[in-house]
Amino acid sequence: MRKFWCGFFIFWPIAAVVYSAVSPQFNWWFPGPSVTELGQRIDNLFYLILIIVTAVFIGTQVALGYVLWRASHSKAERAWFTHGSHNLEVIWSVVPSVILLFLALYQMDVWALFRVQSFFPKEALNAPVAEVTARQFEWRIRYPGLDEHGVPKKLHLKPQPDDLYTVNDLHVPIGRPVMINLRSDDVQHSFFLPHLRIKQDAVPGQIIPIWFKPERQGNFDLACAELCGWGHYKMRAQLIVEREVEFQAYLQKLRADQNYDGHATPSAVAKKDE
Amino acid sequence: MHDDHSHHEHPKYALIFAALCVFTLISIMADVVQLPYAVKVVAVLSVATCKALCVLAWFMHLKFERAWKYVLLAPTTILALGLPLALMPDVGEHYYTQEVPQMDDYAEHLEHRKHAAEHHGEAEPE
Amino acid sequence: MSHAPSHAVPPIKMGLAIPNSKLCMWLFLGTEIMFFTAFIGTYMVLRLGSKGWPTDPEVTHIRVAAGGINTFVLILSSYFVVVAHEAMSLKNFEKARAFLKWTFALAVVFLGIKSYEYYGKIDHDILPGHIAENDQQAKYKVLKESEKAVAWRLDQLVSKAKSLNAFEKLPEPANDPSKLRKALVDAAGKLKGSDKPAEAAAAEEFKEFDEPDAADPSKSTMFSRFKAMKKDIQSETVPLSEIQHQLEGLKSNEQWGFVFKSVHEPHPILYGNIFASCYFLMTGFHALHVIIGMILFAIVLKQPKLEGWHDFVENSGLYWHFVDLVWIFLFPLLYIV
Amino acid sequence: MSATGVALEHGHDHDHAHGAHGHHELSFVKKYVFSTDHKMIGMQFLFTTLLMMMVGGALALGVRWQVAFPWTSMPLFGPLFAESGGQISPEFYTMLFTMHATVMIFLVIIPVLAGAFGNFLIPLMIGADDMAFPVLNMLSYWFMIPAIACFGLSFYFGGAAAGWTAYPLLADIRAAAPSSGSAQTFWLLGVTFVGVSSMMGSVNYMTTIINMRAPGMTLFRMPLTIWAMLITAILQAFALPVLTAAGFMQVFDRLDFGGPLEGIHTVFFIPAGLVVNNADPTVGGGQPLLWQHLFWFYSHPAVYIMLLPAMGMVSDMLACMCRKPVFGYKPMVFSMSAIAGLGFIVWGHHMFISGMNPALGMTFMLSTIMIALPSAVKVFNWIGTIWGGRLQFNTVTLYCAAFISMFIVGGLSGIFMAAVPVDIYFHDTYMIVAHFHYVVFGTTLFGVFAGIQFWYPKMFGRKMNETLGKWHFFLSFIGFNGAFFPMHMLGIAGFPRRYADPYIHPYLEHLMPLNQFITVSAIIMGFGQFLLLYNFGTSWFLGEKAGRNPWGANGLEWSAPSPPGHGNFDVPPVCYRGPYEYSNPNNPDQDFWMQTDPPKSKKKPEGDAGHGH
Ligand code: HEA
Ligand code: HEA
Ligand code: CUA
Ligand SMILES: [Cu+2]
Questions:
Q1: CA distance to partner chain A, nearest, from residue D139 (Å)
Q2: CATH says A127-273 is which class?
């Protein structure tokens, strides 16, 4: 029985490591490589921590298995009588604390880049692309109106008459930093873009800027990650990253649809506008 | 269960009481006399702290207790000061734009009215 | 049994040289400090984090004098507790009892002054959740309250009409206000010439709900003037001062002004609700502690003999000083700053 | 409070008078229901929490069923909520996990550690005949009953549905979660009752531990369990009032939401001008983040309240099972204190993404990561304790080893989340769910299982069955890891928590089979718990009779009869040495040396724990 239980405590960490190692093959892993560079840096941090943690995990579990095996097979009449070792205590306090301190300090700049406004790319900070307002249970999106050349105006904090609106469908251009003003109408929500590794709570009464620089075209999921009521799970929207021209065209189509007077077909209006 | 220290020198409770009354008067005076706001705040809060210390030391006999009082009161004191301090950067100040439509509009509107009133040289309405 | 002195046991008392009850009281006060820290800290940061805060005593109905007197009252009561405890130590129980009675009486005074202050706030409807924060809300508040008042008056008159059998037939459906109003006006016509004074008076009252031509203001009734005000409020362009004026007009009517007695003077307070929330929360919980303290003293005072109650008095005293201590901070924070 | 406090002490003296006057039989009610005996109260807590664990577990299985097999009717339990043919509606799902967490945290983990083991062990281990204030102690149990009733009522009224964290505005504004009208208010009242109960318990424990130790029981001769209980009590006493205060604020915010300017309610967490569910804009001026701060100011220390006592107990049990002193007694004490101290300044790590000031995010990251340090010291010391011991693989050992092993996993996943940038991605995903189940179930509950097995003989005078215990361990361990280890992968895949039907999101579709595996494992683990209950119940009558000291342990509790009578000790205990003098060469007769054994000779020095050799 001793052997069985020692094996048990040695076997399970091995199983855990093996399981983790094969998980990416089964797609039980990140939903694809990050779409933003910042997300890539988050992934890198994740892998760095994963390495440290795996080492610690294996080290401690092996040590645990080993001492269990030794102690349960001990032939000595008496256990080793010791109350501890000062030197060991110092070693195993100092070594982890160095590692931990390094970890803590090493990540500061990614965080600063993501959240501290003075680190935001200037061009994004001054020209938010859209305002996203969360409410039970949808995402309302407001783009600034377009000027006579079809170029987006500046986004005002307060709604303007010529603003463009959509729901659950956020289009952004690729290749340049995009800033979004995040708001909430009712309760807290959270703006979660798993493929971009971005998450930020929307807090009623606050306007929180988020920026990201998408580097891959495509449709990505936008989910809500803060419990906001029974429909929390169904606050599903999509983020569509497209080329600048497509994006501009999209905004124009939006304007056309919004100005549609009910007579011409919408696409006809769009054509007329172009 | 009579503790041994109940026969210490009788502190002059009446004196402490008088001091507390004086402190109270000072804080009321601080309100009556027109002081700059910051000065007033600092003044009344320090007076309150003095009063609190008087009550703690003499009325609550802490002056006559042994060292346990430090062990017992230090954590609470630190936490009691720390909690509001820790809330400051988030609730007392705002990193992000606060948006309170009703109030913002109204505050602006009041501001306008005040300016208008000054302009016309008449008393503020209300 | 294990406390029974056994000679084999070296008589070492572990722990602190204070009674368990006192230790426990101090620990409990530690938790109480954290409890009030949460409230006071909340108040401070919320206030600092707001762009405005009502401080004008005309608006907030905060009376420094009342607060100051209450501070004095609590300090004095604290003093009495301390000398009561002193007297208990000296086994001078009757003196202690007298001092405790004073403490109790002062606690009553404190609560009295507090309720007077609360009364003032309630009277002016400075209650959390009730306060208009801008002109628009203030106007709508007037509307809501006067609608309620008018409905109340309608109810009253309908029952009166019923008791006088003044209705020819009950309107259908019986709860439609416009029908009821019409029925009242009809009833007024019917009763007008009655020789019974009660009926004649009632007829006058029923006319309040008449809706004469708007063209002639001299013929206006209670209801028509209420409707005029309602229209003004709903148009959202008439300034608050005008509404205020109209409301005053309504209230000052000799005949039926009392109907609008329950309508509060509209005065919007920027950040008034959060202010009132903090005020009532802190003073309310403090008052609750005062009441608990009074119960403690009442227990002592009920005892025929105070012998053996020394520790109890000491501990309730500690508690009472703590209550005093909280007020020492609440006073400047709420009344002065 | 002081009234009770003081009066209680009088009552206590009174009890003694009874004892001295001879055999005064207590009535059934006094002995088993409104008992003031700490052992009976501890047992009452234990029974209640075990029962509640089953309730909470059943709720968890409901949660699991929905996540794995959404919109299908649940077997066995389906008929209980059969409005929708046994299907779990999203509203019901929200309420299920809220109540699951509420029951597990407020009615299982916290009371089983402080309430059950704290009550049973503190007086016995420090050599007191009872708590300092027995009546207060009794009240602290009886305040759990209205708490349970309130949570039950909350259930009845549709269930609180804002998560166990009850974030405003979802929890604050009635219109935001219409189904939880009065349910949320009852939930808050329940939490308040639990709070009062814990507060009563904690001041009592502190007083008892500080002032009622047996002669010779100096601070550094106290078993680590007692240290842990003392530190836990301090945490509770100073953190809990803040939650109680915040709870009151939320109750007052919820008082009446008849619409703006109607009905009186406060606005602490309600900003002005919100449009909730198309109602009129709110009046306000409050701030939702305030609640999160106040809540976590308590609830982060609370996670250590849920852990430290188990850590202390495991240290004691490990030493006994290995016949070896605890490695580094004083470092253990200091690291527990450090965990408690740091525990007060890390609460913001739950709020990294909440819209709080980014500077706070950095500060909290630093303190959070540093809290791994004392935890590391503890892990290494446990391993050091086993190292060179003479170990027997009985059930207690197995649970303790699992405790260490699982704590490492749960703690290490905490490191990912403590790193703010990484938490941007992991916050509110199943990574968090995996993390805290590893620490609360994998660690604490395994510690509790060990404690039950270890102290059962002291409680009932009989040992629990080893074979059943091992089967329970096996099923729990396998089921637990099968259920919760894959959740890390779900977290990495970005699977958000609190989702009634995650699969409407395309990027989560392929995770359904993994979830089904998790659910099957959870069911295995769940049914494993019946073995525990069965073993617990039957050993009461069938278990092998145990003497005073069946494990050959050192603590004072083992010198009392099993089960101890009223007043605990037949011989007033005196403490002569530290609690971990196993295999001391100065004591050639036995490999243990009870704290109560008088010294053999006056000259030979004896080790106090903590003095290195
Ligand atoms: C008993 C309960 C318990 C315990 C002990 C812990 C311990 C820790 N927790 Fe956990 N936590 C919870 C219960 C607990 N937690 C719960 C319930 C939640 C979710 C609440 C909710 O949202 O519903 C949560 C959430 C939570 C979050 C928030 C995540 C989010 O919502 O985004 C974070 C973030 O930092 C965190 C971190 C930590 C850390 C760093 C520790 C550390 O104390 C761990 C320290 C231990 C170790 C690190 C392992 C041993 C050490 C070594 C072997 C040494 C070497 C190690 C290194 C060098 C790395 N926890
Ligand atoms: C001590 C705390 C504790 C414990 C022990 C558990 C135990 C379990 N938890 Fe718990 N859980 C939490 C605390 C805990 N949990 C918290 C705090 C949350 C967060 C909630 C929130 O988001 O607000 C959570 C959330 C949570 C979720 C996430 C829900 C979501 O976000 O959508 C899941 C999902 O799998 C889950 C599963 C489980 C399972 C399978 C168990 C298993 O270990 C249970 C095993 C079963 C038993 C121990 C009992 C056996 C009973 C039976 C077999 C039924 C028989 C019944 C009767 C006789 C009545 N839990
Ligand atoms: Cu919106 Cu969750
Ligand atoms: Cu935490």
A1: 36
A2: mainly beta
